Amino acid sequence: MVKHPIILAHERRFNGCRGRFFQFKGKKESEEYEAVFQFFSKLKGSNIRQKSTDRRIELVIPKEEPKWWPRLLKESTKVPWIKINFDKWSDNKEEKDDEEEEEGGVDKLFQKIYRDADDDARKAMAKSFSESCGTVLSTNWSQVGAQKTEVKPPDGMEFKKYDE
């Protein structure tokens, strides 16, 4: 028998999206779970972005028409087995920021770390990176400020200066 448990959508496996319907199934031990959502309006099922880790799956399912919905689902009554995590909710601006971050890769990640760091962490990053010829990046000023940062090439690599 299929059960309807309390479901956080980012914790289950994605199975499909068509029109305004979204369906996924999950299994834990011998228990099978299934959920079918009928959203307020149509979705772009071909444009789904998925991010998976060992602990969760995040889905971004764009609307077919980018207009405001008064609620998430077609039904106006509260469905007791669905919970929306508003900490994970994003508007269009946040989605654009996420897309830009994904496109930038590692460079954007380091820029964000530097931008969000305090002054000591920024000094540590600049000093460790320059003294190690780009092989070390640290945010710990108490450690980096006390001594010279040594060059640490990746395993199996050898560091050589250009003038050698």
UniProtKB/TrEMBL annotation:
Residues 70-164 form the SGS domain. Coiled coil: none annotated. Residues 142-164 are annotated as: Disordered. One of its GO terms (molecular function) is protein-folding chaperone binding. InterPro entries: HSP20-like_chaperone, SGS_dom, Sgt1-like. Residues 149-164 have a biased composition (Basic and acidic residues). It comes from the Eukaryota. This is SGS domain-containing protein. The lineage of its organism: Eukaryota, Metazoa, Ecdysozoa, Nematoda, Chromadorea.
